[in-house]
Hints:
Blueprint: E1 2-8, E2 23-30, E3 33-40, H1 50-60, H2 69-85, E4 89-98, E5 104-109, E6 115-120, E7 125-129, E8 135-139, E9 146-151, E10 158-163, E11 168-172, E12 178-182, E13 189-194, E14 200-205, E15 210-214, E16 220-224, E17 231-236, E18 242-247, E19 252-256, E20 262-266, E21 273-278, E22 284-289, E23 294-298, E24 304-308, E25 315-320, E26 326-331, E27 336-340, E28 346-350, E29 357-362, E30 368-373, E31 378-382, E32 388-392, E33 399-404, E34 410-415, E35 419-427
Antiparallel strand pairs: 1-2, 2-3, 4-35, 5-6, 6-7, 7-8, 9-10, 10-11, 11-12, 13-14, 14-15, 15-16, 17-18, 18-19, 19-20, 21-22, 22-23, 23-24, 25-26, 26-27, 27-28, 29-30, 30-31, 31-32, 33-34, 34-35
Helix pairs in contact: 1-2
Amino acid sequence: xxxxxxxxxxxxxxxxxxxxxxxxxxxxxxxxxxxxxxxxxxxxxxxxxxxxxxxxxxxxxxxxxxxxxxxxxxxxxxxxxxxxxxxxxxxxxxxxxxxxxxxxxxxxxxxxxxxxxxxxxxxxxxxxxxxxxxxxxxxxxxxxxxxxxxxxxxxxxxxxxxxxxxxxxxxxxxxxxxxxxxxxxxxxxxxxxxxxxxxxxxxxxxxxxxxxxxxxxxxxxxxxxxxxxxxxxxxxxxxxxxxxxxxxxxxxxxxxxxxxxxxxxxxxxxxxxxxxxxxxxxxxxxxxxxxxxxxxxxxxxxxxxxxxxxxxxxxxxxxxxxxxxxxxxxxxxxxxxxxxxxxxxxxxxxxxxxxxxxxxxxxxxxxxxxxxxxxxxxxxxxxxxxxxxxxxxxxxxxxxxxxxxxxxxxxxxxxxxxxxxxxxxxxxxx
Length: 430
């Protein structure tokens, strides 16, 4: 048996959301057939004892023989070096764009961060070049507010826009051409998502339904019915096999993407749902609610495994890190919290904002957290200690949307006026 080892520095493409999992890949030959096996290093940090880690790997994996241990150590040290590169980043304001003639509704980056999109009350979506700030396209055709927008990441060649005019449109990033207009909802579309394979787009509406649309044909595939109030949160899980919808009816529903069948309903919250999504291996679902709690659910059977408490006001956003080990929550009480998905205990509390926090996300490396607040600032935090590392100032209105790019070196922030701010990070001393 011949074994080759190489370093995985790129993402394992598990979802349409950005995923940055590090590990080593084993490539070996058995009975004349080339095979591969991956060893995830999800807990690797810059301070991990490499010798002890390699000893653990050798005990569990017979392919890693003593003669290859030095090579494995070298590869893991390279991964550590890459992690260290991202630990000293400081963000600098790069561009301020007056994007629309009316207030913005949303902003989104493509995977690399090379371009981004903005939705607006002016009924358009605009496509921008991040580095130059040049407007690439204005996507016109909606007859009301463009509220929900998304790239089909990781591909990034298509954009979906959902509007208060009850339609969703599919566009070409390269040309700005509209491929399809999806019609069928009877009320405003307020959330949408591409599946990871970029074959479907799902839309959630104030008409209490979600719909699945075929990207190639432009035809409706399924209508997901069962909620008794507006759907305001929608996402595919990372495999693309299931869709998660959150509603004002206090429940979350999980659906099969290939049949449209409801798998189960998550019942337990006593107020409107604000967010609902799965972790990277599709084993857990986290839901945030206006009842001031988050709930953690077993995705295999729909059973609640924990209620995450501590906030004094509504939960406005929640998310997993990219390994599924940590959960972050953002609240109208002006604080954010980080919980362990394993112990369900609060690890740290993020305090410093002077207004409600409407948006929270981890960077792809999982060591930093980004928050956007009504106090007109975004902040970057250490995910383990809760220390505020940087305050991103300059907005003149509340920040309602903010996001990292795939590498974690670009942040985009959008405020309730007409401006978007782009922040780049550089190594300190670079």
